[in-house]
Design a protein that fits this description.
- The protein has about 80 residues and is mainly α.
- It contains one helix and two strands; from the N terminus they run H-E-E.
- The longest helix is centred in the middle third of the chain and has 60 residues, at about 10-70.
- It has one helix at about 10-70, and strands at about 70-75, 80.
- The protein has one domain (about 10-80).
- Strands 1-2 form a two-stranded antiparallel sheet.
- The radius of gyration is 32 Å and the shape is rod-shaped.
């Protein structure tokens, strides 16, 4: 045989408050995880863009080196000091 007892309104309110806080925390953690997914996607795309940029820099450096020889470039003056 079971006995059913009724919780006080304070006890019921306390339990509901804990449940609400728990749900709020879980919801916020889900939002953060969702943001991580999007941030990781953006990070991956930026990493790929950086790798491609470095390839372009290397390619341009090789072209300039073949044309002018090994040297140091001054971007402000638009000059290259060639090592001989």
């Amino acid at each position: 045989m079971k006995t059913v007892k009724t919780l006080t309104s304070d006890e019921l309110n306390s339990l509901n408050n804990l449940l609400d806080k728990n749900n709020s925390i879980i919801f916020e953690l889900g939002q953060i995880e969702s943001e991580f997914i999007f941030l990781n996607n953006r990070k991956q795309k930026l990493q790929e863009a950086l790798i491609n940029l470095k390839k372009d820099e290397l390619e341009l450096g090789n072209i300039l080196n073949a044309k002018y020889g090994d040297g140091k470039i001054n971007l402000e003056k638009g000059e290259i000091e060639v090592y001989q």
